[in-house]
Amino acid sequence: IAELRAELANLSPRDEAAKNHIEQLIQNLEQHLNEAPNDADRGTLRENFSSTIERFEAEHPRITLILNQIMNTLSGSGI
């Protein structure tokens, strides 16, 4: 998450919408990690990650790579 936040800090001001979208995703992830999520919450989190990856794949490859790493980590831990 720290690596993702660092990458967000490097986005240009014209990417403010992208930055806000990813910040919201980070907040959802942190909330998910701090609570005991149910299966629906896990599915929603996975869907949010997948759609964000698709959305940013072309314009922000570094962010996409980090999101994929986070998603793989979550998947490996059963989330």
Overall residue-averaged pLDDT value: 84
Helix and strand succession?
A: HHHH
**Radius of gyration (Å):** 12 Å
Determine the strand fraction and express it as a percent band.
under 5%
The portion of residues assigned to helices is over 70%
Low-pLDDT residue intervals, each spanning 5 or more residues:
none
- The biggest beta sheet, please? none
Strands, total number: 0
How far the N terminus sits from the C terminus, by CA atoms, comes to 16 Å
* Envelope shape: globular
The secondary structure category is mainly alpha
- The number of helical elements comes to 4
Outline the structure in words:
This protein is mainly α. 77% of the residues lie in helices and 0% in strands. It has helices at 2-9, 16-34, 39-56, 61-76. The longest helix has 19 residues, at 16-34. It is globular. The two termini are 16 Å apart. The model has no long low-confidence stretch (mean pLDDT 84).
What are the salient characteristics of this protein?
79 residues, single chain, mainly alpha, 4 helices
SSE topology sketch:
Layout: H1 2-9, H2 16-34, H3 39-56, H4 61-76
Helix pairs in contact: 1-4, 2-3, 3-4
Summarize the structure.
The protein has helices at residues 2-9, 16-34, 39-56, 61-76. It is an all-alpha fold and 79 residues long.
